[in-house]
Write a structure and sequence with these properties.
275 residues; alpha/beta; 36% helix; Rossmann fold; globular
């Protein structure tokens, strides 16, 4: 985990349960004699993420439809801390591709770093939920704006306005190539509610998987090199790096790097490129 991450030292479950009583029935001591909850139960993980957003981020209302992803907060925050290392201090404007129903990156970045965001999303249902979160937390459009991406398989076209400038773009892409892959992962991840998906198909599945999704993004990014200073994307699989390197070479990217990330047992990386 990034050394500046506010969750770097873990959680005080007992203290949190005193403040948020709904957590108390979920507590137990693990094999290391430490208080915790069972994160493999979906409703536990969702509740805990809501508590973290309320306690540490100042987001009092953060409800996400059952069908949508409920992102873990420390890992998402890690991405933002690494992006902050690249951009430095001061006001920034970030373009979030596929912001989702949770709108987690804009909320974290705006509240903790005072950055402004434009979040692009293709699903109208996710947009409606994201706008409800903004409204109930009294966050104005001048701080976080949600725009609908109406052109499929496009990332910037018709959504980044002419002459608009961003310090960086970010993206947590769909990782799976098929619904079957996503469902298999879902069964491994959760003890309960295994028949239900952990996210919608648009959040989890894309033709060609993440390698096709990110290489398409790299192709289009060349057209917006004068409006977005740095392009970034999460990369789940190590094997995807070779495809990214090849596509960056094809479109004459001047700079490409991969930033390693590790939260708990999960290892991933951030691809960073600019022209």
């Amino acid at each position: 985990m990034h050394p500046n991450n506010i969750f770097n030292s873990g959680y005080d479950f007992l203290a949190l349960s005193e403040e948020y009583h709904e957590l108390k029935p979920l507590l137990f001591k693990n094999e290391y004699d430490k208080w915790t909850i069972d994160f493999s139960i979906k409703k536990n993980a969702r509740l805990f993420n809501e508590i973290l957003m309320k306690k540490f981020v100042g987001i009092d209302y953060w409800k996400i439809p059952e069908a949508n992803l409920s992102p873990t907060i420390p890992g998402r925050l890690d991405y933002l801390y690494h992006l902050k290392d690249l951009l430095g201090n001061g006001p920034k404007k970030i373009f979030d591709i596929g912001t989702g129903a949770s709108m987690v990156y804009p909320l974290l970045g705006n509240k903790l770093f005072d950055w402004k965001f434009v979040g692009a999303e293709i699903s109208t249902k996710s947009i409606d939920n994201a706008k409800e979160i903004l409204e109930k937390n009294e966050i104005p459009e001048s701080e976080i704006e949600i725009r609908q991406q109406k052109v499929k398989r496009k990332f910037f076209d018709k959504i980044v306005l002419p002459e608009e400038q961003f310090d960086a773009s970010m993206c947590n892409p769909p990782f799976f190539e098929s619904e079957e892959q996503a469902q298999s992962w879902n069964w491994k991840k959760w003890k309960s509610d295994q028949a239900k998906s952990v996210g919608t198909l648009s959040e989890l599945v894309v033709k060609g998987g993440e390698k096709q999704f990110i290489t398409n993004m790299i192709q289009e990014s060349k057209e917006f090199k004068n409006q977005i200073k740095i392009f970034t994307s999460l990369v789940s699989k190590k094997s995807t790096e070779a495809f990214i390197e090849k596509e960056c070479s094809n479109v004459e990217v001047k700079y490409l790097d991969f930033i390693a990330m590790k939260t708990g047992r999960k290892e991933s990386r951030i691809a960073v490129w600019h022209f």
